[in-house]
Amino acid sequence: MHTEYASGNPIRVFWTRNAVQADTRYMSSTHPPFRASDGERDRAIDELRDRAVEGRISHDTFVGRVDQALRARNQQELDELVADLPRRPTFRQRLTDAVASVSEFTTKVQAAWRRPRLPRLALPDDDRLRYVVGRGSACDLVLSDLTVSRVHAELRREGDGHWMLIDLGSLNGTRLNGWRLVGPARVKSGDEISFGDCEFLLTHGQPT
Question: Which positions fall inside the FHA domain (predicted)?
Answer without folding.
Answer: 131-181
